[in-house]
């Protein structure tokens, strides 16, 4: 449905405008999470290239560190994948206020920033055989932010 159709239906059907707005939020939320999942998949490809170097050198400690980071990235992907679309269930009477939506948007932007920094950090590790801990910290912080998002949306205040 395009914007013109939604506008026309909102004039004809009472309450449809609010429904369309909620549906747009759900669609936008799903699109963002899919984007993040795809970006994290690309991050895992960089990590795989790094790990292959350590496999060829039989550096088992570094292989284990890379595998631990890969698992952490997959956990974040799983959380993003399994979250329900939008900010409230379809046909829910629960309304999320604008202040909370703004906080959620800021969290979503922060998660995108963490993924950007993760790619930079992985590129640095790939070029200099650096430490995996900064990358692991970024993934952990993204998971914490995503958890905070649900705290905001789940509170009744």
Share of β-strand residues: under 5%
Question: Quick one: overall form?
Answer: elongated
Main sheet record: none
How many angstroms does the end-to-end distance come to?
33 Å
The succession of helices and strands, N to C, reads HHHHH
Helix content: over 70%
Could you report the average pLDDT, rounded to the nearest whole number? 80
Number of domains: 1
Gyration radius, rounded: 20 Å
Strand segment tally = 0
Number of helices: 5
Assign the structural class, choosing from mainly alpha, mainly beta, alpha/beta, alpha+beta, or little secondary structure. mainly alpha
Give the low-pLDDT segments.
Answer: 13-20
What does this structure look like?
- The chain has one domain.
- 81% of the residues lie in helices and 0% in strands.
- The chain has 5 helices and no strands.
- α3 (60-82) runs parallel beside α5 (133-154).
- The protein is elongated.
Strands, helices and their partners?
Layout lengths: L2 H10 L3 H41 L3 H23 L15 H31 L4 H22 L3
Main attributes?
157 residues, mainly alpha, 5 helices
Brief sketch in words of this structure:
By secondary structure, the protein is mainly α. The protein contains 5 helices and no strands.
């Amino acid at each position: 449905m395009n914007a013109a159709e939604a506008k026309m239906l909102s004039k004809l059907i009472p309450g449809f405008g609010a429904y369309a707005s909620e549906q747009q939020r759900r669609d936008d939320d799903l699109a963002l999470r899919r984007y993040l999942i795809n970006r994290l998949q690309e991050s895992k490809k960089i990590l795989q290239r790094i790990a292959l170097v350590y496999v060829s050198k039989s550096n088992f400690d570094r292989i284990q560190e890379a595998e631990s980071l890969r698992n952490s990235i997959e956990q974040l992907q799983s959380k993003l994948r399994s979250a329900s679309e939008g900010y409230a269930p379809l046909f829910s009477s629960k309304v999320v206020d604008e202040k909370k939506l703004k906080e959620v948007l800021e969290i979503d932007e922060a998660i995108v920033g963490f993924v950007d920094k993760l790619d930079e950090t992985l590129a640095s590790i790939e070029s200099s055989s650096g430490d995996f801990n900064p990358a692991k910290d970024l993934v952990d912080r993204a998971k914490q932010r995503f958890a905070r998002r649900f705290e905001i949306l789940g509170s009744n205040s």
